[in-house]
Amino acid sequence: MSLSLSFLVSLWPLLISLWVLYGVSVAVYRRYFHPLSSIPGPFLNTISYLAILYQQGILEGQLLHALERWHAQYGPIIRISPNEIHLSSPEHYETIYSNALKTGFYKDPAFYGPMEGPIKTPIILTMISNEEHRVRRMGMNPFFSRRSVLGLEQIIRDKTEKLVNMAEKSLGQIGGEFDVHRATRALTVDIITEYAYARSWNYMDLADWGEGYQEAIRAVQTFFPWFQAFPSLLPVFGLLPDWVLVKLYPHFGKWFGSLEVVQQSVADVKRDIVLGIKPPRRTIFHELIDPEPAIMNVEAVKGLPLRQKLPDVVVFADAVNVTGAGVETTGATICRALYEVLDSPEISQKLREELKTALPDPFDVQEMSLVELEKLPYLTGVIKETLRVSPGVPGHLPRVVPSTGATFEGHTLPPGTVVSMSAWSMHHNTYLFPNPDKFDPTRWTNPDVDAVHARERALVSFGRGTRNCIGQNLAMCELYYSVASIIRRWDDLKVHPDFGREDVKLVEFLLSYHPRKARKLRLVGG
User: Which positions are annotated as binding heme (predicted)?
Assistant: First the structure.
């Protein structure tokens, strides 16, 4: 027994040596003999996937800023992991994203697949096949079309007016301040739930503004980088009971609680359908649960694949995606717009002058249609510039090179190579956006029409193509009414003095956030 034990102990140096030799040989191959070895990039990135984990998991969402530094050092094409390159030139975006159905680029399963682990359900975001995604999304598109949003903009008007009234009440008190950070997130929750279920969650009526829901969405995303780096952890994670996960990471309690709320909302819609209770209007989930025959007949005539009633698990997954995706992104964008306007006397004066000309009565914003608001050039410039500096999904979105291969920046990429671009890099292109760190609404009101069009093609805050953000039209409507209503209502509104530019720095775990230590935006009267 002692002999065999001593023999095993004697093997350890050999095993360690073999392990080190294997690691070195893999590193040498990846750096010098891999098909992507000619593409420049940081040394550690070229030999290990852990370099991205360090930026995303350890430093918490800093990869978008690292990409900016690496492109400045190495050029428009860089290798950011052994099998992934990142591009910064806007000219490539159409090929990889906008025309993916034609060019064949598809989502990287290694990046999107692990997201389903902490979310605890498959969602439309993580679907790999572009064609399957197109069919799945077909039933949702009409409810988020511009026509549908214009037809239901009264919902946004009413909820925005409620927000403004609550701000008025808070600011009217002695030393009053308005917690616009939490309030705008509650606003976006109330709008999307009213829009999607015909039943608002009414988070604006809660003392804490329903803050737990927003915290839950962020908490679950912090796990993405770890599961992407170590996918073998996913089966273990899936086997653990929810109570164990909550014990290990208390924020999961809020996430599981939010899933129950979403599930109940879907169940309420399904119950009404079974009981024959007609809603004030059919929502997206009425259609997904019980498609109207008339609509399906139209699809058949057009030669589109016939949609069937979706299984409960699929409807629930879509509900998780629809309800959660636009809460933090739109709320954060509204806050950023208000901060940038109020932080600059010049910008706030110009915007107020435009709004006062269009709206002599500060209480008349809700009487204007979205179409009328969109005709205000400086307001539109403020909103587009906010989307540039604060995109909802700012980081890299990996796609896989199809079987035909691809060539970018003079480098031929074999099939299976992962290629990505990011809104942050696009929006900080110094040729299209000189002095990109400056907030400048006049970039979009410039009389040079060609220059403005070039910038608009590079503005990808909502993505492009068939996999763009489905809620784009709704989000834009929320932005116009929120920013116009708040800025027009008060002439002396200011940012709380303890809030600064360091608090609007972005990090990302897929959606954009601010660092954990960042202070929350509050507004005060003059």
Answer: 469
